[in-house]
Amino acid sequence: MASSKPSVWKDTISGGFGGMCLVAAGHPLDTIKVRLQTMKVIPGQKPPFSGAMDCAMQSVRKEGALALYRGMAAPLMGVTPMYMVCFAGYSLGKKLQMSSPDEQLSLFKIWNAGCLSGVFTTAIMVPGERIKCTLQVQGTPDYKGTKYNGPIECIKGVVKTEGVRGLYRGTAATLLRDIPGSGAYFVGYELFKRILTPEGSSGPGPMGTLFAGGMAGVCNWSVSIPADVLKSRLQTSPPGTYTGLLHCYQDLVKTEGYRALYKGVGPVMLRAFPANAACFFGVEMARSFLNW
Q1: Which of 24, 115, 230, 245 has the fewest beta carbons closer than 10 A?
Q2: Predicted structure pTM score
Q3: Distance CA 121, CA 112 (A)
Q4: How much of the chain is in helix, strand and coil states, percent to nearest 5?
């Protein structure tokens, strides 16, 4: 597979291609995740969805199979620059810590570089996530009707009603999710890649890359899911529902308990492995092409 020496421009291009692979592989389960996270549970009443499978079946039955691809245009438009910035930040973070071009960084330094990438991506991530989540919850029992017919109309509607700041609602929750999550993401990938690389080889091979990428996604979401639940709630609630991240957390725990912080964990983990396997495989293939 590709060389492990960091090159910011090569990692930037490779990251963009990998991000596109991730969206294509994982968006339907991401839609289910968001719908589960944002459903309102009223004590004494049956919840709108009993789980991931019920959510998928209801969505397809009532809205058609394309319902699971709602909001996909927004992450596709944002994912290329976002993952370009993500992998550029990670590459830069590694270079800043290297004493020589051939140094193999410790996992702690990999964590540092990953955390830096999480900071870099937030500015691009938040508006795309706001639009994506808003479109994904349309048609659900708590958000009846279709208010927006696509990402452009959604952007215009949010800016009109909330101003440009409305596109950045959930920034603090995104930082809380992505800084430690990105650290775990890259540590997970590097750890499993090293474990699966045969002695004397420069990489683990295609199947090893897919497995390491999938486990990177699992590591990421194992850390990130509570903050992601809060982010989804903040970004899809009507303006004025919450005064901020802390208020959202307190209200969620008070009304639904601590288990609510792990809503959607099933589809998240189901999506995490194949989507991130596709992402890192795309990254490594693109990097191999650029090194050719």
Answers
A1: 24
A2: 0.80
A3: 15
A4: 75, 0, 25
